[in-house]
Write a structure and sequence with these properties.
With about 290 residues, this protein is α/β, with parallel strands linked by helices. The protein has nine helices and ten strands. β3, α3 and β4 form a beta-alpha-beta unit.
Amino acid sequence: MAEPLIEASLLRKLEYLALKWDKSFAGLVGGQLTSRYAGIGQDFLDHRQFYPGDDLRRINWRAYLRFEKLFLKLFHSEPRVPVRLLVDCSASMATNNRSKFQYARRLAAALGYIALVRLQTVWLIPFSEDLGEAHVCAGGRHQFGRVVDVLTALRPHGLTNFARVARRLLDEAATKGLLIFISDFLSEDDCCGPLEHLAQAGHELLLIHLWDDAERFPNWRGLMELVDAETAQQYLIEIDENLCRAYALAFEEFQKGLERVARRTGGRYVGLSTSLPLERVIFGPLFELGAVG
């Protein structure tokens, strides 16, 4: 039996969280939620489990008399900020037994669940050379099965073209919101410029930079034939200590460049090794960054 994309025990813990952002988006609400119900509208939407701190006025007491459990009634509220989860499906994500690609899908599932519980509209968008088909999920946690189905069906392939991806987003993402990029950000072309253009257009960026420890800290030495995962171009390189030090410095500078783009435009950046347990990442680096809370 295939391993589930995300464990039920983790989903229960994620119910306490909400995605957060700093920008104000005209005509939209969400992000800095102080209550655990969808809104004060009159249209019933869903139920969810009651947690300490929830509004007691929203408890379904009839359900309590029947099941002896507390459930909260959820209602439609004002239009909410769209959450767009952009998952890198380029070939470079498939290196080292697909560790980055699988991690990206699991992290996207977790963040998508957090958003759905808070009744955000979630756009799942794969990308590589171009934007893939956008899958819109809204209406509460019962849509999470669709999120899992979409993510499970994704396959890594092709090059990465951030310039084309950004142009498509600028054309098609008319309603500004939170853009969460889950990627290794490896591309033949510059990725920082296109990302900055998206932020300048009014979106808020959350850049989640994934790497495999084998590519972050390679222990190769000697004459090696390396093959570019996306272009298939071959390189014959003599790898020694000096080259490894230069590579480490270049990788750090690449990280800093992404972080500068995020900070300069009012967004957030976090770099993550795929060796870190998913729960630790969500309640550690992402929580401390203020991306969830």
